Amino acid sequence: MGSENSDSSVKIRLGTLVLMIFSAIFGFSNSLTAYYQMGYASIIWYIITAVLFFLPSALIFAEYGATFKGVRGGIFSWLKGSVSEKTAFVGTFIWLAAWVVWLVSSTQFFLVSVSTAFFGHDTTQSWHLWNLSSTELLGVLEVVFLVVVTFFAAKGVDKIAFVSNIGGFFTLAVTIGFTLAAVIVFIINKGQLAEPLTANSLVHSPNPQFQSPIAIISFIVYALFAYGGLETSAGVIDSVDKPEKTFPRALIIAMITMTSFYVLNIFMCGVVANWSADLSGKHVDLANVEYVLINNMGLEIGHGLGLSHATSVQIGQWCARFAGWADVLSGISAAFLMVYSPVKSFIEGCDPRLLPKSLVKLNKHDMPERSMWLQALIVSIIILFISFGGSAAGTFYTILMDMMNVSSSAPYLFLIGAYPFFKMKKDLDRPFVFIEGMKKVWIVTIVVWLVVAIGIIFTCIEPLFNGDYATSFWTAIGPVAFGIIAWIYYTVKERKNPRLED
Description:
By secondary structure, the chain is mainly alpha-helical. It has helices at 14-25, 28-38, 42-67, 75-82, 85-119, 134-153, 160-188, 213-226, 230-233, 243-272, 275-279, 289-304, 309-338, 341-349, 357-360, 369-387, 393-417, 419-424, 438-461, 469-496.
């Protein structure tokens, strides 16, 4: 390995780093969602996004992470050190808002997982109680789940790591199992695909909602979401052996591996399911498409082995149940982590003078309990407002997913846009440098920034061309509203305390 590094704490080698990046970013269900929305045509967008967004952004964040190592607050500290505290407050507040929206949508998806785990398929659209419609009842149950998670998370639950490990194991098993089972179906059917692979299918979506050029370009945001979490992987660069060589190598290997897995899994979806026959019905939506595909995979294996239709249906349901339990376990652990982790990170990055003392204060378990309950209240209000708004289930899921994708992508505009200003700072120690020369810096920044911006803009305006003003509103309102709130809040605090930027 060459000369020994003087810092004994630097232990992360290339292979370990690749696995860390992969586990932090890769999501099995992203491939299944991509196939549902764009069919085989999603493959080209995943490759384009990997080259034009994933790789350059990760290297930019790696430089941030190396330069601001040891500073608490993550992306808040990066933006504050590159531009200003006001920009950092607005950008990080939108980032926090993305996790708030994630909590709104993930609680909905969690109940679909629970239903599938118990019944073998999604039955949530038929749930009724106390004269409430299924959507209204789901909203109430989501709030109950959120309150329970917040209550226990605020107590500093340390056993959640155990649940997280079990969930991680099951999720990995589902990913590997789906791929192997699809290969078995491919062999049994003698290479016959359920969804024919043609030159046209690689560029043309079978989904009526993704036919127009604007809708197709808006899919960039979904591809961005599949590579989301880059900012977290850059935080370990100070513990990497020879980071200037190891980190870019690890990113390139991780990018090729991840993109290959996404492409392979999208192809495998076409092996086990015909889009028009299996996914075009009203019973399929963004929340349950994973289970529909896995159920169909089990069905195809049964038929391919010459088993009776009833037995094949049972195999499909048990496959879906297994995936449901994996998602239930990982969903619980993710919910416990996300009700406090983003809030705590935001509080640590902020100047204490910016926030009310009651929200900054940690309880005896080292948790920002009051901030967590305020977050739970906000999320509950959003859930109930959408649930009792009368939207159809399919539209409801799509709105939530669009809100989450756009809100989670918007902070990248701040992080990428701040890069040239970060490079202009002369008094910073930079253990890792991505690009030399301001001309190259500006070219890379503009290209990557435009990829994100175009994806966000087209996702927001695409529903307008179909007269769907409600979806367009909900898609755009998240980052815009939270950005305006953060800007006004900081401006008021700045007037009261002019020394905030000191």
